[in-house]
Amino acid sequence: MATVNVRDYATGKSVRETPEEAVRQDFEHILIDELGYPKTHIDIEFPIQRGSKKKAESADIVVFRNAEHAQGNVYLIVETKAPGGSFNDQGLSYATATTAEFMVLFDGLDRDRSQGARYFWRDLASAPTVFQPIPALPHYGETLEEIGEYKRHQLVPALRLKGLFQKMHNRLYGEGPFKREDLIAQEVIKMLFCKLYDELYSPGETCVFRATVSELRTPEGQRKVGQRVRELFGALKEDPGYGSMFRNEEIQYDDYWISYIVSELQRYALTDDKTDTDAMGDAYEIFVGPQLKGESGQFFTPRPVVRLAVEMLSPSFAQRERVIDPACGSAGFLVYALRCAKLQAHAQHSGQTATWIAKRVREYANGFITGMDTEPLLHRVARSYMAIVGNGKSGIFREDSLLRPEEWDAKTRERVQLGAFDVLLTNPPFGTGIKVEREGTTGQYALAHVLSNGKPTAKLLKGGQDPSILFLERSWQLLRPCDKQGVGGRMAIVLPRQILSGHDSAMMEIRKWILDHMKILAVVDLPSETFQPYTGTITSILLAERAVPAADEDYRIFMGVVEHVGHDRRGHPLYARDETGAVLFDTSNNPIVRDDLPEVLSAYQRHSKVQPLTDYRPSVFSVSLADIKKQARQRLDAWYYDPSKNDIVKHIWGLEGATDGQIEVRPIRDLIANDGDVFYPGRHRRNYVRPGPDAVPFLSSTNILQTRPFDVKWQPKAYRPAQGHLVKKGWILVTRSGSVGRVVYVGDDLAGFSVSDGVAVTEHAIRVIPDPSRVDPGYLFAFLSTHEFGEVLLTQGIYASVVEHISPDHIKDIPIPLPEFGIQRQIGDRVRAAEKKHHSANAEIAIVQKSITSAIDSMSFE
């Protein structure tokens, strides 16, 4: 296996990619991005000579007092291990051979296996061989004694808060008194509010939110720190802008853990313009476990998706456009919208002072940026997040936006009215399986009723409606209706792709409603990794304008099919790599992240200016509204209209006219005897038994793709429900979910079992029963199994929820080029001959296996 290298963050050296190396890179980011140490002061694998030993030991990371890399100039040594690894005394012992004041042991930021960073200091003058535990490292240019003696102007912007929060979480969860993720999150958010309140409102220059090293070392000192923080929290509760969030609450952590949290946060200015203001979103992502988020359908919206949605809609600061997110969560969309407003304000008022511009931005945040969320923790996160970036706290409401407006709090009703917003950005809850059933709520929505041709009937849906669908309609209701120029408010909403692509009648009716009430601006299909590792729900971004389209109106809709969003299914960064697997870096020595969304944004901006999209990758294109309305199911997902698939469809249909009658082209529905000859049987209650003459194998979709299957289940031959799953020679099987579009020909043998003896196959495989008088079954299989044509045509019909599917109706519509029957028969005969060889090979292997079994059974062991 080839060695894969990455580039060291501090030195730029090429290093081997290993779990321990990933830990070293994490701590280099802490040293450089959090603590401010210059890269020029850092080296890796630095040799340490001890006494007369000729063989030097190597330190994983060494920080020098300045740019001179010499053993006599060492300031700090870091020993790293992969998560779960153990340390010995080696690092502490060879550090004594240097001038290092500080030693660090670090085993990463893994949520479950890492202990995190442990810090040590030694007094070089009085006890040079004794390393004492300390609670924190000094920042660059800071002495140990200066930690915690901070004036407000000495605070520094935080550039990598996600790593800091991960480190804090590991310590609080691993050693702290609370083991419930939500309780930890609640307490950390309280502490963050105290930190914010100190920065924004505390009188005097000296920080109240502080802890010195001497205070951190003793219970009495920790008590002083705890007292200062509790006084801050008390003042915060008296503040009209914050008090309602924390009424009758106290900080639950004791002095020790308050002091620890203060020690980690105190050096940073959270409200500094240069601070990484994704901090609150990152805090939510890290401190609130996936179980809590999954229960409520609240999933952290990846920053690339947030940026794309906001910049595609581009809310206008100059026109004071009103922006709302009715399911704001941690306020990611609103914060980024406010960032964009800041940039616009600086460009619009370049001659004004920074203070004057900041005041205008605060006014905009307080008057024109609005968020709603019913979850108490998210409400707090959103308000603190907005306080950091623009003091927009007054526009965040704890409210269930799906309720009737008259049920909202009076303050909410003053700020939020239906039909009042220019821009809406949201990622509503989805994937919970929990429906909204309360008639007092559902009665106000057309989409909670049974629809007929996109229009609501008087009948409410039995069992309620999915909240993501109700949020779609509530979002439309919140948007401003069309003005005199025919332009209405516009939205960007993240939706389960099932709504835009599903084949069931309910989803088709919803799409008709959408087309009747909105002008579609764009659809961007996101990959399945987007919300992983928290949920596998497949999503799209729908951009639309509130409008009443004319019956004959036509326009072009931007479409994008995204393959990469910057992270993999485990949530780890997804880097671009060369052919050897080595990570690629940009000119600033930063790894290149695989993120297609900036290219999608660029393409959309060109589309908006009526410029061509031909040179873009990933796949971006436009579709006319008329073409969508012609399509029987009026699908709105981009995947279905991707030219890479549609061009093949057009090419296949074009063969008939281009070959002087030598080739016919017919859809599969014309190549079967009955309309029901493309189907999948219904699910039945399984009745598994031991293999035997009175049982038949019941093959899963995985089994039918295996040369020699394993873990095969059996069902009784006489079991009536299983009879409907038996397959026959000459049929074609197409996997319809999971690994979609795999094609299998049913010959004499299916995965090593005789079809004439009976083989049952899971309902996850669609059956295609060709009419041999219309098409040779072997030829049809051969065409459908081609990578260039059949696979593309089959997967074009994928519609998505959590698991991708294709339907029998889609398969019936696939065009098949039909050469004259003699050619079809030649191809079909070769397929059948191959299947016979497969059958013979399986039979031969079965004989060999049986002989081995018999031989072993006949042996005697003493």
List the helices and strands and how they pair.
Blueprint: E1 5-7, E2 14-16, H1 19-34, E3 42-48, E4 57-64, E5 74-80, H2 90-95, E6 102-106, E7 117-123, E8 127-134, H3 161-175, H4 181-201, H5 213-217, H6 219-238, H7 255-265, H8 279-287, H9 290-296, H10 303-313, E9 323-325, H11 332-348, H12 354-368, E10 369-373, H13 376-390, E11 396-398, H14 410-415, E12 423-426, H15 439-442, E13 449-452, E14 455-460, H16 467-478, E15 490-496, H17 497-501, H18 505-517, E16 518-525, E17 539-546, E18 556-561, H19 597-608, E19 619-624, H20 625-630, H21 638-641, H22 643-658, E20 664-667, E21 678-679, E22 695-699, E23 713-716, H23 720-723, E24 732-735, E25 743-745, E26 749-750, E27 753-754, E28 760-761, E29 765-768, H24 777-784, H25 790-795, H26 808-813, E30 815-818, H27 821-858
Note down, in words, how this protein is organized:
With 862 residues, the protein is an alpha+beta fold. It has 4 domains: 5-146, Alpha-Beta Complex (tt1808, chain A); 177-276, no CATH class; 290-641, Rossmann fold; 667-844, DNA methylase specificity domains (Adenine-n6-DNA-methyltransferase TaqI, Chain A, domain 2), CATH 3.90.220. Helix content is 36%, strand content 17%. It contains 27 helices and 30 strands. Helix 6 (219-238) packs across helix 7 and helix 10 crosses helix 11. The two termini are 44 Å apart. The model has no long low-confidence stretch (mean pLDDT 87).
